[in-house]
Design brief:
Largest sheet: 9 strands, mixed
Number of helices: 3
CATH topology: L,D-transpeptidase catalytic domain-like
CATH class: Mainly Beta
Number of domains: 1
Shape: globular
CATH superfamily: L,D-transpeptidase catalytic domain-like
Oligomer: single chain
Radius of gyration: 23 Å
Helix content: 10-25%
CATH architecture: Beta Barrel
Order of helices and strands: HEEEEEEEHEHE
Amino acid sequence: MKNNFFNIKCIILILVLLGTLCLFKVSAAAGNNSLLKDPETDMVSANSVSDNQVSDNAVSENKSYESSRYELYVNRGLNVVTVYENKDDGSREAIKAFACSCGRPHGHNTPQGTFYTSETYRWRRMIDNTYAQYAVRVNKLIMFHSVPYKEMKPNTLKWAQYNLLGSKASLGCIRLAVSDVKWIYDNCEEGTKVVIYEDMEEELPIEKPESFKISYDMRYRGWDPTDPDPENPWNN
């Protein structure tokens, strides 16, 4: 009897230890995933990939997308987006350039690679409780979107962040003025090719535009000056 009782106790102890070990592994995995959250995108952070790594929706998965009308080339070093149009004769022409803010250095670099756009969002809430207009997903890591807003209202722009357009300022996403990102949102279909690279010496086909600067004493500083919203006082 004593031996049987001892054996039962040993079995119970082993089961308890195994259960504890399983719970520890689950908790550790959850903890690691939470560390990869990005306060700007509510998706896995751009920090979780290396500079040259492409994402799950990169070239190999989207061969059929290569015939899209437009292609977006993002020079993250110069913080400029160049839009190319694919012509019927097989040629390609640069038609637009947008000043942007790519990921700031020291851990927030926008990943380089070739990607294809997917979901779009008229407004997108960020994990840090800011909001962005006209978000277009580049991959599970990053999006094109407007400069952040304090609320889901177009008159709550974080205007000091707007003044950083043309320089590195984001947590990995590609920020644009509202009129520019709205153009992408309206005209670039799902599967539009996006190439992100860095070339500080590039001779751009279209000169990088200068962004308007908002000062504290401007009455309408809570609005993006380029926002086509009919209630935007900059348009009156």
